[in-house]
Amino acid sequence: MGWNLNLRKNARVVMPYAGMMMVEFMDVGLTTLSKAAMSRGMSHYVFIVYSNAMATLILLPFSLLFTRSNRPPLTFSLLCRFFLLGLVGITLMQNCIFTGISLSSPTLGSALGNLVPAFTFILAVISRVEKVDMRSRGSQLRVLGSLVLITGAFIVTLYKGPSIGTTPSSNPSQIPTNSNSLTASNWVLGGLILSAGCLSLSIWHTLQAATLKKYPAEMIVISFNSFFGTIQCAVVALILERNPAAWTLKPDLELLSIFYSAVIGSVATPCVMTWCIQEKGPVFVAMFKPLGIAIAAWMGVMFLGDTLYLGSIVGAIIIVIGFNGVIWGQSKEERRIKEGNDGIQSSAVFIDKAPLLQNYRQL
């Protein structure tokens, strides 16, 4: 009996770590798989429409069914908020993310994804939700960490440097793509578009936190977010994708990537992440984000034939340092406020409601 009890306790301790490693692998797997499909000719506009449509078909019925007994009433103003969330969090963000990845690589996407906490903090300060007291160690760390994060983003975007190691063109496990033909101009443009996607995600976090205060039914908010985002992305795709054949799905990598994005990216990943937040807290979950850079680099080399560059490694290291500075500063600031040292308002709403963590399926 005692042996079984210890086994359960050990499993309870290990499971959050295993869960977050699985989340990072699933997130990077999404960008790697979608990059491979887009390199074979799949339109990323069509990909976004189909994946969000499938996610909506999964999320919306279940959310309406399981929240019918305690669901707050829906109003026109709330539906307008949901429409805006879909516009910022799906239409703008996902189109920027997948356009940027198609021009660059999943490694760059994972590295720049760490900009989200810095952008969220800056937006909180600009909107006066967050007050910065430079006498506070926590505020100093967050400001310094944000500056380091942005510096790392500039390096990883603007400086490729020499390649590191041998090119893996002879690796039989690679999915044939055009990733080795990336030009410097495409790399920079992809990095800038990815940064714009991260900014959109940060804005979405801010709007989502405010919406959840008014309508505390997270599943409904996410479902309508996906519903309106699907409609908006369909309009964008119909305007920008002029090739009718692009809408015809092939039962190969294209269909697999769409299914993976809808089921794993929109359902499985948020569920595992929510459980880990409940078990260990948001800071624990955020600490695993830099792991995605290493996973993306490995998957890119193994399956896409990507080449690692010195600028990517140096910039990623700087980004990780800045990311941990922001997280550490946020943790210290929350601890200081809980202890009642002063009345500075915290940006914890952005973390507790998932701003540093939900990445969407992001990145």
From TrEMBL:
Spell out the InterPro entries in the cross-references: EamA_dom (IPR000620), EmrE-like (IPR037185), WAT1-related (IPR030184)
Q: Which residues form the EamA domain?
A: 30-155, 190-323
Reply yes or no: does the keyword RNA-binding apply.
no
Q: Where are the transmembrane segments?
A: 12-33, 45-66, 78-101, 107-129, 141-159, 187-207, 219-240, 255-276, 283-303, 309-328
Pfam families attached here? EamA
A GO molecular function term, named singly, is: transmembrane transporter activity
Could you tell me the membrane topology recorded for this protein?
Multi-pass membrane protein
Per the record's keyword annotation, is Cell membrane included, yes or no? Answer: no
Q: What keywords are assigned to this protein?
A: Membrane, Transmembrane, Transmembrane helix
Similarity comment text for this entry: Belongs to the drug/metabolite transporter (DMT) superfamily. Plant drug/metabolite exporter (P-DME) (TC 2.A.7.4) family.
- What is the official name of this protein in its record? WAT1-related protein
